[in-house]
Design brief:
By secondary structure, the protein is α/β, with parallel strands linked by helices. The chain has helices spanning about 20-30, 85-95, 105-110, 130, 160-170, 175-190, and strands at about 5-10, 35-40, 45, 50, 55, 65-70, 100-105, 145-150, 155. The strands form two sheets. It has a seven-stranded mixed β-sheet, with helices on both faces. A two-stranded antiparallel ribbon has the order 3-4. Strand 3 and strand 4 (about 50) form a beta hairpin. Helix 1 (about 20-30) runs parallel beside helix 5 (about 160-170) and helix 5 (about 160-170) packs antiparallel against helix 6. The N and C termini lie far apart (about 45 Å).
Amino acid sequence: MATPAVHVLVFDGFADWEPAHALAELRRSGNRSVLAVGFDAKPVTSMGGLRVTPDKKLRDVRASEVEILIIPGGDLWEGSYPEADLNGVLTDLVEAKVQVAAICGGTLAVARAGLLNDRRHTSNMPGYIAEHVPPYYGAAFYEPVPAVNDKGVITASGLAPIEFAREIFKQLRVFSAADDDLWFDMYKHGRLPESAI
């Protein structure tokens, strides 16, 4: 059986910068394979204008083939999309103990799948999820912090792509604790290690 790969959901208007730090280090430092997943097989254009052709369709995603599913933000999440299809995949992944990571508007997708009703989580601001997902009843678990990892689901504010990446790295054990701190200081605070100066 093939080694499970990192899967990232892509769609027209996806916020390409939000998963960028995570994807780059997962490939470079973590030696992970990364696959783009689309709602269908058609090429999509990111918010930044990158054209991406999905490697696989959402309906072909199998939990045994996924190490983590990353869901970037984008205006799509405040409108319509194949919600039932995505909800089914998200539920299957979480039941199989496969990590899911959502940032910015992507947190609406995991909320619609019912995954934030009993987990600590965050999003763009208090009230954002309730405004867009009426069935959501997990407000008591909301934390006003950049990123949260609880029970197989990572969530992050759209202002926190570095913290989002860091939670993914911790979950997938990409770095040692010391290297994790070093990476975070470089990319969050612009601090180069002493050895590089």
